[in-house]
Amino acid sequence: MTATIRCCALVTRYADARVAESAGALAAHLAARGIAPLALDDEIDRFDGAAVRGIAEAELATQAELVVAIGGDGTLLYAAGLVAERRIPLLGINRGRLGFLTDVLPADMLASVDAVLAGDVEIDERQLLAAELRSATGVVSARGLALNDVVIQKSQAGHLLDFETSINGRYVNTHGGDGLVVATATGSTAYALSCGGPIVEPQLEVIVVAPICPHTLSDRPIVVSSRSVVEVLLIERPDPRAEVTCDGRLLGAMVHGETLRIAPSAHRITLLHPRGYDYFRLLRSKLHWGRRAFDNNPG
């Protein structure tokens, strides 16, 4: 990164004293460096008097040149949804729990932001999925983008969904269960992981297709090329109802005969990491994996 950054948006999303503390400190730090800190209008009161300018959600992608998400991975996914079509880089400060995407510790926040401003940073391009809901006649009723995953799941407790999947126009399977997760490599450590899916290195150009609580034990997750088009058709069952989400945001409801189409997006997300970023070290830390017997460094 070599372009001069003049405006930086701080996305916090949730009211949390720790998040507010970090956000206020970063806003003051940016202002002292002559960089205008921005925040969404409904988050401005969390900055406790700091010189932060409020903007509407729709304006963030047109005014910010850098976005810093302070919170958990959900906060970064929310921020990614705001800038997905504008290639604005994202830096994640971990004030959440796992933090696969928000990988900068609060103690390193100011130094990491300074490194970003100086261009001393690792740039990580991540794939996005594009989802479309289509009626039985092929009319598109909703569109969305996802960095982690697109999920179709039952909207009624105690009911199964019956649906068919096809990949690149070829029939794959008929499923009965709670739903389906279609995840990028980035999202392989999210919902898909709890469905028995594999952990995929983020640089791999693949898509994970993982059934949710399948009724048939042989219905297993599969990994396909990131160029694949996955289609899910909701088939007839008494009062079948499902909902579709993109990174946890509701895309829309589905009924019998409607199709969910998931394809690679032309847009990509740019994540920023401090120098020395190590994905496997991150996995060891977040998943509490063991260490080599001769290594005294728990990292």
Structural commentary:
With 299 residues, the chain is of the alpha/beta class. The chain is built from six helices and 17 strands. The two termini are 28 Å apart. The strands form two sheets. Strands 1, 2, 3, 4, 5, 6, 7, 9, 10, 14 and 17 form an eleven-stranded mixed sheet that branches. Strands 13-12-11-8-15-16 form a six-stranded antiparallel sheet, with no helix packed on it.
Named at the architecture level, the CATH assignment of the largest domain is Sandwich
Give a quick account of the main beta sheet: strands, pairing sense, barrel closure. Answer: 11 strands, mixed
Radius of gyration: 20 Å
Give me the secondary-structure category: alpha/beta
**Unreliable residue stretches:** none
How much of the sequence is in beta strands?
35-45%
Can you give me a brief rundown of this structure?
This protein has 299 residues and is an alpha/beta fold. It has helices spanning 17-32, 60-63, 73-83, 109-117, 191-194, 279-287; strands at residues 7-11, 36-40, 53-55, 66-71, 90-94, 122-134, 140-146, 149-154, 161-167, 170-177, 179-184, 206-212, 222-225, 230-234, 241-246, 249-255, 259-273.
Give keywords.
alpha/beta, Tumour Suppressor Smad4, eleven-stranded mixed sheet, six-stranded antiparallel sheet, 6 helices, globular
How are the secondary structure elements laid out?
Blueprint (H helix, E strand, L loop, with lengths): L6 E5 L5 H16 L3 E5 L12 E3 L4 H4 L2 E6 L1 H11 L6 E5 L14 H9 L4 E13 L5 E7 L2 E6 L6 E7 L2 E8 L1 E6 L6 H4 L11 E7 L9 E4 L4 E5 L6 E6 L2 E7 L3 E15 L5 H9 L12
Parallel strand pairs: 1-2, 1-4, 2-3, 4-5, 5-17
Antiparallel strand pairs: 6-7, 6-17, 8-11, 8-15, 9-10, 9-14, 11-12, 12-13, 14-17, 15-16
